[in-house]
Design goal:
This protein is α+β, with helices and mostly antiparallel strands. The chain has 6 helices and 15 strands.
């Protein structure tokens, strides 16, 4: 029988004890778990970034993987602790929009508000539900406890308003939604939309005051110091620079615009 897999995604970083505490709780309840770190470097309190990273990683894990995700600036407040059940995966964390993109991409079978305290740690902190609620629930779930046992069901999860690209008057407007460790600028311009809108017409890609001609197949096609555009592994338009940090070189930030001007 395959060992249960639990992934962890947080904004905790790795310098403090927080991640280790969560892992300790899980392994104390189920020592047979395989624990996988997706990342603990989500920008502090950045729910949208956490949602983006989770949505671009969860589907590559085996069926029935438990995804424990904590980006929780409202910890201890009115937001609910939840377990999201889809046909192939489980998601545990705060109901604050962190599962927005997951709920768009997966069929949601069940959403359970975690209320059964016998599956929590005996003493609850108002500032660390990742350790005291989410980690023990994930561990008990990995032992085969059925989702409905952990609490009561609700109809939906809270969703954030992720902006999509916009087409108007021969232009495709998008934004930078994520900047990775290498400084690559990931936009919200989906490849399918891009192909449909351009339809083989000539176009220019503008990032701030920087003009880019056409697309490249991969990073290797870039020339040092010259920005290129390509569709990355996430399926969205990226702006990159060979062996350089595109964010720093182009002096842009998340939320800045990317515009495709099409010659019709």
């Amino acid at each position: 029988m395959r060992k249960p897999v639990i992934t962890l995604l947080t904004d905790f970083g790795t310098e403090d004890h927080y991640v280790a505490s969560m892992k300790g709780v899980i392994l104390s309840i189920n020592p047979q778990c395989t624990l996988i770190d997706i990342t603990h470097q989500v920008s502090p309190h950045d729910i949208q970034e956490g949602a983006f990273l989770l949505a671009n990683s969860y589907s590559y894990f085996p069926k029935k993987t438990i995804h424990l995700s904590v980006v929780d600036p409202g910890v201890g407040g009115i937001r609910k602790p939840i377990l999201l059940v889809t046909p192939h995966h489980f998601f545990i964390g705060p109901d604050n929009g962190l599962f927005t993109l997951v709920a768009q991409r997966e069929k949601v079978k069940k959403v359970v508000v975690l209320t059964e305290q016998k599956y929590f740690l005996p003493k609850l902190s108002t500032t660390f539900h990742g350790r005291d609620i989410f980690a023990p629930v994930a561990a008990h779930l990995s032992l085969g406890i059925k989702p409905h046992v952990f609490g009561y069901e609700i109809d939906s999860v809270k969703k954030l308003g992720f902006e999509t690209s916009v087409v108007t008057e021969g232009k495709l407007f998008g934004k930078i939604v994520y900047i990775d460790t290498f400084g690559n600028l990931v936009s919200n311009i989906d490849e399918k939309i891009f192909v449909r809108v351009t339809k083989g017409h000539p176009y220019l890609i503008w990032v701030g005051k920087n003009k880019i001609h056409g697309l490249r197949k991969g990073y290797w096609e870039g020339k040092p110091g010259v920005p290129i555009a390509l569709f990355g592994s996430s399926g969205y338009l990226e702006i990159s620079m060979k062996k350089k940090n595109a964010q720093k070189a182009l002096k842009v930030k998340r939320g800045d615009s990317i515009t495709i001007k099409i010659s019709l």
